[in-house]
Amino acid sequence: MGTMFDTSDDPASTLAGLPVEAVAAYANGSYANYPAAAREFPNVHLLEIDVVGQRVGNAGDFESGDMAYVDAGQWANARISAGIARPVVYFQVSSWSPVLQSLAASGVSRSAVRLWTAHYTGQAHFCSPACGFGVTGSADATQWASSDAAGTLPSSYGDRNIDVSITAADFWGPVSSTLTPPPFPGRNLQQPPVMSGNDVMTWQTQMALRGWAIAVDGQYGPASASACRQFQAQVKLGVDGIVGPETWSTTWTAPIT
Q1: Residue-number span of the structural domain to which 200 is assigned
Q2: 60-119 tens-digit pLDDT
Q3: How far apart are alpha carbons 60 and 165 in whole angstroms?
Q4: 3 state SS for the chain
Q5: 38 within 8 A of 12, measured Cβ to Cβ
Q6: What does pTM read for this prediction?
Q7: What is the CATH number of the domain that holds 210?
Q8: How far apart are CA 201 and CA 161, in angstroms?
Q9: Who contacts 181 (Cβ-Cβ below 8 Å, separation ≥6)?
Q10: Number of structural domains the chain divides into
């Protein structure tokens, strides 16, 4: 997982002194600053955000004042046709349903895009069903803090005009097959009865990051067991719906297809 910054001001001065690994900047609109970001940060991951529908860059901003939610599917389709791999669709988490409906209506699969949500809780997280708003599955990145959302930006960022996002391990490309899984929790995850705990949530989170439509709620019930069996079949493990040591490890180490 990583951190991505964005700002409507000059990236060089606003992000000075921060450990920058990824920057999102605007290709057009009132705050067009992508050229400045590209000059200042040539060796980090960059998103170029289209806010007016010119069908440029590798990210589209869908919110009030920018592109309409209903246009997300057509925009994503156009960028994919232009050769952009997994274009990014940015939107407020409360608009999850209309954005996903727009993508589906345009024939854009969930795996063909990266979903970047805004949900200002002041805590780094990936939007999931636990956030409400009809979320299914998990976002690929979530903007969780902003100078525009009072009380969400950690004091370590001072008075910078900045937004902070967390990005999934595969946000910038396939998850490495050498990704080190967390230690096996010491108990198999299985049901019935429903099992609960942080180990369940850890496994569900990784499954969601892999693109599975799974609730990240810390409850290992029938839905989690079903996702487990499908995953086991996909990666050619024994299919029993139980997250034992081998299934647990493979959830992190198997390449995402």
Answers
A1: 195-253
A2: 999 999 999 999 999 999 999 999 989 999 999 999 999 999 999 999 988 899 999 999
A3: 16
A4: CEEEEECCCCHHHHCCCCCCCEEEEECCCCCCCHHHHHHHCCCCEEEEEECCCCCCCCEEEECCCCECHHHHHHHHHHHHHCCCCCCEEEEEHHHHHHHHHHHHHCCCCHHHCEEEEECCCCCCCCCCHHHCCCCCCCCCEEEEEECCCCCCCCHHHCCCCCEEEEECCCCCCCCCCCCCCCCCCCCCECCCCCEECHHHHHHHHHHHHCCCCCCCCCEECHHHHHHHHHHHHHCCCCCCCCECHHHHHHHHHCCCC
A5: no
A6: 0.70
A7: 1.10.101.10
A8: 33
A9: 248, 249, 251, 252, 253
A10: 2
235-255 pLDDT per residue, tens: 999 999 999 999 999 988 887
